[in-house]
Design brief:
This protein is mainly beta. It contains three helices and eleven strands. The chain has a six-stranded antiparallel barrel. β2 and β3 form a beta hairpin.
Length: about 190
Amino acid sequence: MKRFALVMGSSILIAGLGSAVSSLPASAGSKTATLDFGTVESFARAANGDVVELNGEGTFTLQPKSISGDGGTVKEAFGEIPRTFTHRDAAGNVLATGIWEPTALLSYRSFGPATPEQNAFFGGLPTGSEGGKVMFKVALYVDGVHAHDGILTIVCELGQPQPNAVEASLLLVQGTQFNFRGAVHGDNIFIRR
């Protein structure tokens, strides 16, 4: 969250958002909701030492479940964050780069709204900022060609996270040995509309 916070802080000042609200609207506990998400320079490691860097934004809706690449309020607050991945080996050599597209929402668990202390620590967060864990299916493209499908998990530690929660973006590349499940570091946010 620290690196994303710097991006958030300067974007908030530029966008004139200043110190935002420290609580969500009354509908925050509703099972029907739309949330925007963002991940910036989030890294995860596979068992063989390979690392994937993930960036991107999108929007998902609960009941009915849907997901898209439209970043909505994240894009408004921080600018466009292209949905990219970079796969490097343990020595840092680039093995693949490409883009990811969300295809299906699997689950979301909210950790609740950012606390007043978190809001103050980051110098103000956009209205509706919250923590949580989302899992969704993605299509991975290399040079414009569909290469693999995967499952992307994004965790943001705002709110009241589970004791074992770690700020991370993790990627399971289906049909391969690559399961990037070791959190290195992540900068993530959810914004409830």
